[in-house]
Every structure is written in C-alpha cells, then in structure tokens.
Write a structure and sequence with these properties.
alpha+beta, two-stranded antiparallel ribbon, binds iron/sulfur cluster
Length: 168
C-alpha cells in the first residue's frame, strides 16, 4: 500500500497521526507527512480509517491491495476406520483342582453288646482300644492314624466275639 497526503488539502488537524502515528506525522510539517512507503500491511486498516476520517479527504491511498483471503484449505478429513474390536476376553478355563482329600480314614467301633472285655484288642492295639474305664473295650482314637491300621485290622480279626467293626 502506498499513501500520500495532499498537502493542498491537509489542514494539519492531526487526526491521522492520532490514529496511526507510525504512518502519519505532523512533527516537521504543518501538514501531515507519510513516514512509511510502502505502508506495512499491519497498518493498512488504520490508514484506511484515517483516510475515511480525514475531514479534508487529503489522504490518498494507492495500491490498496486487498489482503488476500487466507485460503483455508480444508484438509481432507481422515476417515477413521473403526476396526472391529475383537473380543479379547478369553474364556479361561477354571481349573477346578479336585483336591481329593483322599485322606483315608479309619474308624473302629466296638459293639458293646458283643464285647466280653477280654482285652485282646487292647493288647494288640493299645493306642486304639482301651478297657481302662469300661468293662468292655472302647475306642480311644478317632480317626485312627494310618500307622495303626494294621494293628486295628489284626485286633478286629482276632476279636473272639467279632465285636470290632472297621470303617475305612
Ligand atoms: S487527517 Fe487529513 S487533514 Fe488532518 S492532518 Fe491528516 S491528512 Fe491532514
Ligand atoms: S477283643 Fe473283642 S471282645 Fe475282646 S475286648 Fe476287644 S472288642 Fe472286646
């Protein structure tokens, strides 16, 4: 943009200088002088305003290039391709650990109606059978630890009355 001031018209009112002192000045002249040639683009709007407001129409704008419209080229919108989300939830087989408590247990029962209190069983497996408190044998271990099983089986086999029942 190029600006000139018609010195024959200018009254030196200072309006233009007040609007855009970077371009117009009355410092050295009784009329406005233009300080910038060409006028930087940043002042174009103010210069135009000054030209409009100049009471004498003394401001002449030449080569008033229109600010080229900023091309706002639209960027192609990227298509967001949504890929199907795969089900990543896997069926985790629950390992049911069968904690087979194969803790074999042995239980001995003395039929009090059959027992005669001979004490044979107590002699064979004193940790399991006792006649200490009863006239007949009573079982004092329940369950019976594995290391005594053989003795208990033997006691049951040897019981003359068949009074010992083993549950395994
Ligand atoms: S506004 Fe116009 S009349 Fe006033 S000083 Fe500027 S050019 Fe001159
Ligand atoms: S061996 Fe039989 S009869 Fe004898 S005490 Fe034991 S359970 Fe009773």
């Amino acid at each position: 943009m190029k600006v000139t001031v018609d010195k024959d018209l200018c009254l030196g009112c200072g309006i233009c200088e007040g609007l855009v002192p970077e371009v117009f000045s009355l410092e050295n002249e009784p009329v406005a002088e233009v300080l910038l040639d060409p006028v930087s683009e940043e002042y174009w709007d103010l210069v135009r305003q000054a030209a409009e407001e100049c009471p004498e129409g003394a401001i002449i704008i030449e080569d008033d290039d229109e600010v080229p419209a900023v091309e706002t080229a639209e960027e192609p919108v990227q298509e967001i391709i949504e890929e199907p989300v795969e089900e990543t939830v896997e069926e985790v087989p629950v390992l049911v650990e069968e904690t087979k408590n194969e803790e074999s247990k042995m239980k001995a029962i003395v039929d009090k109606d059959l027992c005669t209190g001979c004490g044979l069983c107590e002699g064979t497996a004193p940790d399991v059978f006792s006649l200490a408190n009863e006239p007949y044998a009573e079982v004092i271990l329940d369950p019976i630890p594995e290391e005594l099983w053989e003795d208990v089986r033997m006691a049951a086999e040897d019981c003359p009355e068949g009074a010992i029942t083993i549950e395994e």
